[in-house]
Amino acid sequence: MTKSKRTPLYEEHLRNGAKMVDFAGWEMPIQYSSIIKEHRQVREFAGLFDVSHMGEIEIVGSDAISFADYLVTNYVNKLKNGQICYTPMCNKKGGIIDDFLVYRMANNKVLFVVNASNTDKDFKWIKNQKGKFDVEINNKSDEIAQLALQGPMAQELLSTISQIDLETVDFYHFTQGRVSGIETLLSRTGYTGEDGFELYVDREAAIPLWRKILEIGNEKEILPAGLGARDTLRFEASYMLYGNDLNETITPLEAPLKWTVKFEKDFIGKKALLEQKEKGITRKLRGLEIKDKAIPRHEHKVYLNNKVIGWISSGMFAPTLKKSLAFAYIDKGSAKTGTNVEVEIRKKKVKAEIVKLPFYRGSVKN
Amino acid sequence: MIKYSKSHEWVKKEGEIGVIGITDYAQDQLGDIVYVELPEAGNEINKGEMLCTVESVKAASDIYSPITGEIIEVNEDLEDSPEIINEDAEGKGWICKVKLSDEAELDKLMNKEEYDEFCEKEG
Questions:
Q1: What is the pTM of this model?
Q2: B2-122: which CATH topology?
Q3: Which residue among B31, B35, B86 places its CB closest to the CB of A295?
């Protein structure tokens, strides 16, 4: 086994009393005090996350936009410079290799911000697809640190140290400028369901920026938040987590990502996805609300009339909604909202109902 | 006198009764506890057998009985307020009371000092 990687903020996390865990080969803070407390902090005020483990892959060259468009299912050529889209990247069978954000930097440059667990795989895949495209592909992951300030107070707090006018940065847009004097790429994006920003800086600038942001507000207004809360927040907001809800055998049409697939353009996996669209999908990701006191977890089975009709991809106790909820891939014929099903949790079957997604809508400005 | 098991349960002897819970170290490791699947009063439990399951935000964890005997009472407060375990694991967060079948079992468990040392090594 290779040694775990550390972000430039590792020592800061220890200083802040974080409990560290291995996540995709990274030593990351899962929590500082309590997942539920940090979850509420982000829903009600603001929380600061270190997400420097995320990968950044840059594509530069005269074919950067057309190459990106060939790699991913969503439109890159329809983005303006300074705009961002969320997209899956599929293999030839339409299975999802990764899901990520595409930043359109310029007419000859895009940046993919990818899952930490997939960075190396993505980089290799992208290089192998290059063919005759006039592009250069660079893995910038080791040079860039990423912080996420999330919560309804994020803008109010950050504006006190930002030289960028945050009001001018729309949802899923970014700009480059200074925050507390530090050169930053700042986007109004996130993974929590709340309004907020993601800030990309040089690795060396991570500690000063982290400290400065935590100093903006008092303890009620801003606190560091760990990966535990990041997971519960994204789950309530019904964002997919790669490895749990998405993998290379699941297509965007089965996941709730049909809106990201643009059949009007050419891209890897299009043929398979078109075929699936015409034949009709056989399973679909749906929300489940557990009626009994039990918590479904990844890979637990879902039953209807004693027949397995699906499996849980993510399940947990949702701290804001105070309910036990899950995402599950359910056979199409049984997937109607309101259907009463059962989930097998440690050899016991508990009652559940298929419900609509998202579970929760926060302050996010979409 | 409180005794501790290697699987991070505690038992406090009160006459013929042993009060069982999970240790403060265990609750800290588990994080926020959101649900406790309580054992049933009236059941017999053997030392080392699974007693109940505690669900934290992160995962489900099985709790093992540090002693043998009949379960005579369970802490029903945990049903609606499982967070009591996080707040006071070795007090108000007790899980159940067991009528001790074999008091000698307690001698084989660790005392506070031994347990703290054990946790330090494990951590």
A1: 0.94
A2: OB fold (Dihydrolipoamide Acetyltransferase, E2P) (2.40.50)
A3: B35
